[in-house]
Amino acid sequence: MKTKIAVAKGDGIGPEIMDAVLRIFEANEVPLEYEFVEMGKSYFDAGHSTGMTEAAKATIENLGILFKGPMETPKGKGVKSINVTARKVWNTYANQRDFRSLNGVQTVFSKAGVSINLTIIRENIEDTYGGIEHMMTNDVAVGRRIITRPGSAQVIRYAFEMARRKGYKKLACGHKANIMKLTDGLFLETFYEIAKEYPDLQASDIIVDDLCMKLVSHPEMFQSIVLTNLQGDIVSDLCAGLVGGLGFAPSANIGDNISIFEAVHGTAPDIAGRNIANPTALLLSGISMLRYLGLTANAATIENALLYTLEKGVHTGDFGDRSVPSKNTSEFADCIIANLGKHPVQGGAFSQPNFECKTNADFHPSENKITVSQPDIEEEILGVDVFVESTLQPAQLAEVAQSKLNDKFKLIMISNRGTQVWPTGSVYTELVNQFRIRYEKADGIELNQKDVFNIAADVSDALKVCSVEFLMKFGDKIGYSLAQGQ
Ligand code: NAD
Q1: Which conformational region is residue 343 in: left (phi greater than 0), alpha (psi within -120 to 50 degrees), or beta?
Q2: 284 CA to centre of ligand 1 in angstroms
Q3: Which residues are in the Isopropylmalate dehydrogenase-like domain (predicted)?
């Protein structure tokens, strides 16, 4: 029985490398059937705002698996990246990237005899990738960074499950919770909460800058690392560099219902159409997909053929021994096909499955899933941050802010770019034309939403209000960052 999957060849080098990979699959009689879908730059150009046709969307949602080549997002047309949109819309919340030293791919580490085998799990939906950005004033752009408890929990649980399945002993959480105490703090808190369910795995955390330093000096220290979206994006490209570059970096975007397998690299417009691109990253992504679909024997045979080919020094133009002539994309695929059934001397295909094997083609939800992690938690409004546009000096602005007070609030502080400028501050602090005025509830007062909007409306009589943020308390936890000295 053949499993049907959706395939999008992509733009630039996409069709060349996808054809090479599908030829290798065919030679190994992989029991897959392909439904080619219309996605990519030409569909943006043809007026499809999401970069794909309705038929493509329906096919992918129906089949549950998309194997895709890289795709180009047209620049400056107000369209969002098709790659990011696809991951978000279909809730492929865990981005798994497996990095491993490949014999035949020389790196500074292979030359030093250091073997790398590590997996990065990157949260794939949240963070700054929501693209929620606003110009608050002509000079001040603000982006929202969204980290949620359910979103963190699902990717962190996935990471622990993956680590266990792969036989790893440890999982680290990379973060910057020392600075972003609420967003990264929530991710880290969730990590240790879920770690309690996996006592067999050693859970630890590391600040992301320290992580980067250690990865480039001692990559063998790590087995698996889970990170938020942007930090994970950067750290996983760093790891691609450790094992030989983007040409060797596979990626699986895993969701509960739909999963997307693709290479990490882009469309490589500089070499597109010349049949010289390296198909290895897409092939490794395809091998991951075969394991995900339970086709582990095919995955192992193809992976061993690839490893054998690399070990023999066969290479495309972007890597390998320059004194040995390089192969073009199709010749490289031909060599792998010729080596099907052979085993590398060193390494060899992973014996553990990369993924919990599943197909979701039978799962079709009738409505959106909504997750609230603590529905009964008590919440209280403690005040409001009113963001205003102004070029007044802090003391003058404080006078205006005081003049708008009513008996429900007290004025706590004023900051500019997060630095407090009133009631204390330094005249050396350089200011831009946006301030945050923090009002908190007066003693004994219970605030409601309307009180918050009323004081913001009163402030708007004197100043341009750019934005209003509630200051909340959830259970016994303060839900906002405190000002200096508060
Ligand atoms: P890129 O990854 O396409 O290229 C960076 C460099 O690496 C280039 O010099 C390229 O020739 C080389 N390279 C990449 N893949 C290679 C391969 N398989 N074999 C040999 N050399 C390879 O990055 P870019 O130039 O920043 O982006 C080009 C386009 O790709 C952009 O439109 C971008 O939005 C898109 N992109 C798409 C995805 C995706 O579909 N998931 C990911 C990244 C970038």
Answers
A1: beta
A2: 16
A3: 4-336
Q: Which residues contact 460 (CB under 8 A, 6 or more apart)?
A: none
Q: Which residue's CA is minimally distant from atom 25 of ligand 1?
A: 268
Q: Decide: helix, strand or coil at residue 157.
A: helix
Whether the CB-CB separation of 412 and 424 falls below 8 Å is answered with no
**Distant-in-sequence, close-in-space partners of 471: CB < 8 Å, separation ≥ 6:** 381, 382, 383, 384, 385, 438, 440, 479, 480
Q: What is the pLDDT of residues 226-259, one digit of tens each?
A: 999 999 999 999 999 999 888 888 999 999 889 9
The distance from CA 159 to its chain's CA centroid, rounded to whole angstroms, is 13
Domain positions in the chain are 379-478
- DSSP letter at 31 equals -
213 C-beta neighbours (distance < 10 Å), count = 12
CATH of domain 379-478: 3.30.70.1570
For CA atoms 87, 238, 69, 285, the dihedral sign is negative
Q: What is the pTM of this model?
A: 0.92
Average pLDDT over residues 16-35: 98
Q: Of all protein residues, whose CA lies closest to atom 32 belonging to ligand 1?
A: 72
